[in-house]
C-alpha cells in the first residue's frame, strides 16, 4: 500500500469519526460529566444509596465514552503525522508501521460506529441472556452448553463482567437452560441481535453409529431492569418455592435448600436462581430476572399495539437466525444478514463480533424501511 493509499484511507476514517462525534456529541457529554461530578462530590450523596449508585455509574459510563472518542481522535491525528513522516524520510519501515496502525484504527472506529446505531429505548442497558436446549435431545443440550461458553468467552475477550444466575444441567450431557447477565453498557443493544433459534449440524458425538444430527437451541435476550423502570412485583402476586441446587457443586451449594423458584401468578412466568449459596441472594437475583421479563413483556405488548395501529405484521427475524455447520463442510452463517465464516471453532470460542455488527446494521436497515 502506497503513502497516497494510506492517506486516502485515513481521510475516510477521519470523516467517519467526524460523523460519529456529531452523533455522540462529546462536548454535551463533558457538560453532563461536570454536572454529575458535582453531584458525586456532595457530602450527602450516599444518604440515598440507589441514587448514588445511579449517579456514579452514569458518570463512569459517560467518562469512558468521552475517553474512547478522544483517544480515537488522537490516534487519527497521530497516524496522519506518521504517514507524513514516512513520506518525508522515504522510510518503508515507518510506512509499514502506519499500515498496521491504520488496520487497528479502522477496526476500533468501526466498533464505535456500531455503538451509534444502538439507539433503542433499552439498548444502553446490561443484558440478561437465557439459553435453552430445544429439539435434538442430548445433542441440543450439548449445543446449548456450547452457546453458553461462546457468549461467556465473547464477554471475557472484551473484559465484560458476567454473572450466571441459574444453570439447569441435562441428565446425559450439556444443559437444559442457563441464565446469565452481561454487565456492560450497551450489552443489551449488542446481544439483542443474537435472539432467536440457533441450529447446529454435525456428526453426533452421542450417536454410536456416527450419524449426522441437527439440533436447536434458543437464545432470549432481555434488558436488565433499573430503578427508574417502576416494575413493581407485590408479594401477593408471586409464589416462592425453594429447592436443592442441581448439578456440580461443593461447599454446601448442593446440600441445602438454597435455590429459589418464583412463579408470577398473574402471568404464569416462572424464574429460578441457584447460583448463590444464600436463599436470600437467590431470591433477590430471581426477582431481578422476573422484573426484566415483565419489562420485556410490557415492551412487547406496546410494540404489538403500535404494529396493530400501523397495520403492519412486522418481521420474524427473531426466529431461526443462525446455522452452525460442522459436517459435511464447516461454516457458520447468519440467515438474516448472510454474513458467514468458515471457522466454527473460532466462533464457538467467542469470536462473534462480526456477526453482532452485521446484525446491528441489518436491524437498523430493517427499521429504516
Automatic annotation (TrEMBL):
<dbReference type="GO" id="GO:0016149">
    <property type="term" value="F:translation release factor activity, codon specific"/>
</dbReference>
<dbReference type="InterPro" id="IPR004374">
    <property type="entry name" value="PrfB"/>
</dbReference>
<dbReference type="Pfam" id="PF03462">
    <property type="entry name" value="PCRF"/>
</dbReference>
<keyword id="KW-0963">Cytoplasm</keyword>
<dbReference type="InterPro" id="IPR005139">
    <property type="entry name" value="PCRF"/>
</dbReference>
<dbReference type="Pfam" id="PF00472">
    <property type="entry name" value="RF-1"/>
</dbReference>
<dbReference type="InterPro" id="IPR045853">
    <property type="entry name" value="Pep_chain_release_fac_I_sf"/>
</dbReference>
<feature type="modified residue" description="N5-methylglutamine">
    <location>
        <position position="251"/>
    </location>
</feature>
<keyword id="KW-0488">Methylation</keyword>
<comment type="function">
    <text>Peptide chain release factor 2 directs the termination of translation in response to the peptide chain termination codons UGA and UAA.</text>
</comment>
<keyword id="KW-0648">Protein biosynthesis</keyword>
<comment type="similarity">
    <text>Belongs to the prokaryotic/mitochondrial release factor family.</text>
</comment>
<feature type="domain" description="Prokaryotic-type class I peptide chain release factors">
    <location>
        <begin position="244"/>
        <end position="260"/>
    </location>
</feature>
<protein>
    <recommendedName>
        <fullName>Peptide chain release factor 2</fullName>
    </recommendedName>
</protein>
<dbReference type="InterPro" id="IPR000352">
    <property type="entry name" value="Pep_chain_release_fac_I"/>
</dbReference>
<dbReference type="GO" id="GO:0005737">
    <property type="term" value="C:cytoplasm"/>
</dbReference>
